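Q: Hi! First time doing this. I have a protein sequence and I read that you can turn it into a structure. Is that right? Here it is:
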Amino acid sequence: MGRRAKKLERFRQNPKNVRYEELEGVLLYLGFEKRRGGGSHAVFSYSEHEPITIPVNKPFLKSKYVKQILRAIDELGLIDDD
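A: Yes, that's right. Below is the predicted 3D structure, encoded as structure tokens:
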């Protein structure tokens, strides 16, 4: 299991304890494109998936945003479970 896959597994086990910077790094590595939304939000998009908007200004993300991202990653099949 790779480093990114381990980090995603940690996100799955405790979605309330995820910082924006950690999630941003994983998403950019996986090929998501980031554009700054209006004000305090960032929008991440992937070619085959609808854009996902995430707030930037809090130290920890709400679990609903983390779960939404994990669901998108699973649907796109971006992480192998080797």
